[in-house]
Design a protein that fits this description.
Elements lengths: L8 H18 L6 E3 L17 H19 L4 E3 L13 H18 L4 H15 L5
Parallel strand pairs: 1-2
């Protein structure tokens, strides 16, 4: 069973409840998942020396793996994460660009095709929000 890394028993229970809730939501065909809000859930970053992209992705993988297994790339969309990326992120001038790099790395780690990456960057949002782009 996958577990959130370096967590106490109480937090592991929370993670398991979160996974169960995500799985229930994913059963609804018209529910989508947005990749957003992660910096506020991670350790504080130093604006002069932001956390490396690979370190951030490694910390997020237990959650990301579950989201991808439940929703698949066809129902996941990029979330700009602004202004939330400024909370505990590396600062206003670096946070958004770092978040874009994190999402790009996540998709590459997951081995997504160009079409699947395109869905996450914009296609899923266009579908979910019924945008004519």
């Amino acid at each position: 069973m996958e577990q959130a890394p370096d967590q106490d028993e109480h937090t592991i229970e929370d993670f398991e409840r979160w996974k169960s809730a995500i799985s229930r939501m994913a059963k609804q065909d018209r529910v989508y998942m947005k990749l957003s809000g992660a910096f506020s859930e991670l350790i504080d970053q130093d604006a002069q020396n932001p956390t490396e992209v690979d370190v951030i992705v490694d910390c997020m993988l237990p959650w990301i793996d579950h989201i991808f297994s439940e929703f698949g790339p066809q129902r996941i969309m990029f979330g700009s994460d602004w202004p939330v990326c400024n909370v505990r992120g590396p600062g206003d001038d670096k946070a958004w660009a770092l978040w874009v790099q994190v999402v790009d790395r996540i998709m590459r780690v997951k081995g997504l095709s160009d079409l699947e990456m395109s869905r996450i960057w914009h296609g899923t949002a266009a579908e979910a929000y019924r945008l004519d782009v």
